[in-house]
Design a protein that fits this description.
- The chain is α+β, with helices and mostly antiparallel strands.
- It folds into 2 domains: 118 residues, Sandwich (Jelly Rolls), CATH 2.60.120.280; 98 residues, Orthogonal Bundle (Arc Repressor Mutant, subunit A).
- It has 9 helices and 9 strands.
- Helix 3 packs across helix 4, helix 6 packs across helix 7 and helix 7 crosses helix 8.
- The protein starts with 15 loop residues before the first strand and ends with a helix.
- It comes from Streptomyces arboris.
């Protein structure tokens, strides 16, 4: 049986853990915080996860996790086909994932045979929410790629502020975004934020929570943004956002 960095012996198929040093897996991997908070480092970047938040890792992504005192996390492996669309995909709080993980925690599977139904259920949820409604790609330029990720974590930061933090000019950043993503920075960020909201809605969340997960101050602000980008009327989105977006 493997031993975690904190010295706790964990059965081969166990999904609960307390934290671990940098390592990687052949399978894709979900990190889900049951309670408290945790700090995950993946591909050289740090992510803070709160209660019920999840992060989806592709195969062979180096990562380390530290759970704050009193917290608990689950770390199930996924089937090989269940790869995220990028190496590290933060998901926020997705109600359908919370439901599967809560059921898993209660069932406490320990053998491969017992774990498999829960792994399949997670795969179905993840495949349903991970399709991008508004296609966006990360820039290839290393500094601008890091800036893009920072822009999604801090939606209130302006392009000028972000560019200065990465020792670039706003004009340079705009040029890279247009060349490598086909979109100006502001539209790229808006579409990426709306994708996060759509993922939340597809996972069973409601509009106010989806707006909050995507960094919008109000549900009305999210609805207006979705309507502008998709062409779907606000009234239709309010009645059934998932159905209206197809």
């Amino acid at each position: 049986m493997p031993v975690t960095s904190l010295g706790t012996v964990v059965a081969e198929n166990a999904i609960r853990f307390l934290g671990h040093d940098t390592h990687e897996h052949d399978e894709p991997h979900l990190v889900y915080v049951v309670s408290g908070s945790a700090r995950l480092t993946a591909d050289g970047e740090e992510w803070r996860l709160g209660r019920n938040e999840a992060l989806w890792l592709a195969s062979r992504v180096p990562h380390a996790l530290r759970i704050d005192p009193g917290g608990m996390a689950l770390g199930p492996f996924l089937n090989l086909a269940d790869q995220p669309r990028c190496r590290v995909q933060p998901l926020g709080v997705v109600p359908a994932i919370v439901e599967v993980m809560t059921t898993t925690l209660g069932a406490a599977p320990t053998t491969a045979e017992q774990v498999q139904p829960f792994r399949q259920a997670l795969g179905r949820v993840l495949s349903g929410i991970s399709r991008q409604y508004f296609p966006v790609v990360l820039p290839a330029h290393p500094a601008v790629r890091a800036l893009a990720r920072e822009a999604l974590r801090t939606p209130s930061a302006t392009l000028e502020q972000l560019a200065a933090q990465h020792r670039m000019s706003a004009r340079q950043v705009q040029r890279v975004f247009l060349d490598e993503t086909g979109l100006p920075f502001t539209r790229w960020r808006n579409r990426a934020r709306m994708n996060a909201a759509v993922e939340h809605l597809r996972g069973g969340g409601e509009l106010t929570a989806a707006a909050r997960a995507a960094g919008y101050a109000t549900r009305a602000g999210l609805l207006r943004a979705l309507s502008r980008e998709s062409g779907v009327p606000v009234s239709a989105l309010t009645a059934d956002a998932v159905g209206a977006l197809g």
